[in-house]
Amino acid sequence: MQNPGAHENTGLQSQPPPEEQNYGATAAHVRQGPFVSVSRTAPAKNEYLIAAVLCYANLINFMDWFIVPGILLDIQKYFKLSDGGTGLLQTVFILCYMLAAPIFGYLGDRYNRKIILGAGIFFWSSVTLGSSFTNELYYWIFFLLRGLVGIGTASYSTIAPTIIADLFEEGKRTTMLSIFYIFIPVGSGLGYVLAAGMADATGDWHWAFRVTPCMGGVALVLLILLVPHRTQRRTAAHRALSISGTIRVAAEKPGVHRTAKTTWCQDVVSLAKNWSFVWSSLGLTAMAFVTGALGMWVPVFLYRAQVVQGIVPPCLRESCNSSNSLIFGGITIGTGILGVIAGAEAARRLRKINNKADPLICATSMFISALCLYIALMVAQTNILSTFIFIALGELFLSVNWAVVTDILLYVVTPRRQSTAIALQILVSHLLGDAGSPYLIGTISHAIQEKNTHSFQWSFWSMQYSFIVCSFIGVCGGAFFLLTSFHIEEDRKEAERL
Predict the structure, then answer these.
(1) Are 181 and 409 within 8 A, CB to CB?
(2) What whole-number distance in Å separates Cα of residue 2 and Cα of residue 9?
(3) Average pLDDT of span 257-274
(4) CB burial of residue 89 (10 Å; 0-12, 13-18, 19+)
(5) Dist CA 343 CA 288 (whole Å)
(6) Gap between the Cα atoms of 114 and 55, Å rounded
(7) CA–CA distances in Å: residue 404 to residues 44, 64, 340, 341, 476
(8) Which of 116, 150, 169, 309 has minimal CB crowding within 10 Å?
């Protein structure tokens, strides 16, 4: 049996000199003088291969998230659900996801991450396949299975980013995290495309849930074969990279280890005192609220706008027109890739001239996104092309923030608390964000319809009025990121000292 304190990355053959082997949580003892430079070597090819496997699994993860919104009209008609009941379907998924996240964060900080990832991929893929066999008499089973899928995906989203953070130093880390998070919008968009495409091709929406389990099986095999059993965790020597690009390591007393284990409660208390983490997490919550509502309801909103304009007929047959899901999926992929790349590049350039660049980028993009989404709502009844354009711009500026806000967490939180921090951020952002936003939007829409004449016009107006909430929340998110900028420098320096 391997000694837990030994060099963890057993999958890599080339070993750096002893003075550079300071990744592991148990390898924090540094023998250098008061402040020394630590040389940085280029990542090995194996590390890029590991990152590629994690990115592929992340793609499948988010495809499973957005299969349901891609065929929402069919599911709503099949189970005879109101707008409120339909929104609850995604809420169940997110609630289970967020409640499981802190558990996996705790496990990820203390136990073998590869085993947790593998078990999660197998579990969510199996449950997704099972949900494809649900009939209309057992809609509650379909809701239950979606919740279980959320539990499985929580294991992956909580732990995978920390492995990438451990594989690469800061310059490469931002780039690799950007690539990793590109697969959020790409996977989300492909979820729409896959769901709509399979429903059109087979005439049965159930087949949309039978493709990603096969992809998950491939991901599990790649994880077993290519990802090392243990991946080294970063320590002060590899995390204390300043914005100017130098690494400085504080001296430690002989025999004293800075990375002594702490309890989960101690970690939570420490994170609650980290204002950069708190405010950026609330900003992410606003992003999640808007993203969750848009992801669930935009295809339905566009369909109702087109019905009012007379562009498409009402959906009265078993299989509904899925063109909006296909278009919105394409928009999500394109704006997601462009947004994440633009955000990472803007952060890389602006950090050189402003230490507060990251939260300021996030704040600016949130304000612009909120404005674009509001304009899209106002023009939807008269010009569907303009609606698509402004929705695309709103999604673009939302996507700018994904990698940047995660990178904020990784440099203001000490590495031994990062999995817990990510788990808590997931919990808060989903509890107050996209766990409730689809249900809230659906409930407001349903309430408005109930108080007015049942018609296609009011069906559209009810959704339009309920969506205005998203623009308001987007402005609040921008304000939270502005507050983050007031604390970012102090909290970063504190993380480097720990």
Answers:
(1) no
(2) 11
(3) 76
(4) buried
(5) 17
(6) 14
(7) 24, 24, 8, 10, 18
(8) 309
Residue 55 · residue 183 · CB < 8 Å: yes
Both tokens of residue 303?
């369909």
Q: How many CA atoms lie within 13 Å of 225's alpha carbon, on the beta-carbon side?
A: 9
Q: Residue 390: which H helix or E strand, with range?
A: helix 384-399
The token pair at 138 is 């057992």
Give CA–CA dist 214/110, Å, rounded: 30
Integer Cα distance of 245 and 263 in angstroms: 32
Which backbone phi and psi does 27 adopt, to 5 degrees?
Answer: -110, 35
**What span, in angstroms and rounded, lies between the C-alpha atoms of 350 and 360?**
10
Check residue 70 and give its pLDDT. 86
Each residue of 284-306: pLDDT tens digit? 999 999 998 998 899 889 988 98
User: For residue 237, what pLDDT is reported?
Assistant: 42
Write a three-state SS string for 410-461: HHHCCHHHHHHHHHHHHHHHHHHHHCCHHHHHHHHHHHHHHCCCCCHHHHHH
Q: How far is CA 425 from the centre of its chain?
A: 10
Task: Encode pLDDT of 435-463 as tens digits.
Answer: 889 999 999 998 998 888 788 888 899 99
Per-residue HEC secondary structure of 327-365 comes to: HHHHHHHHHHHHHHHHHHHHHHHHCCCCCCHHHHHHHHH
Least confident stretch, 41-55, 96-110, 237-251: 237-251
Nearest to 384 by CA among 455, 310, 465: 310
CB atoms within 10 A of CB 310: 8
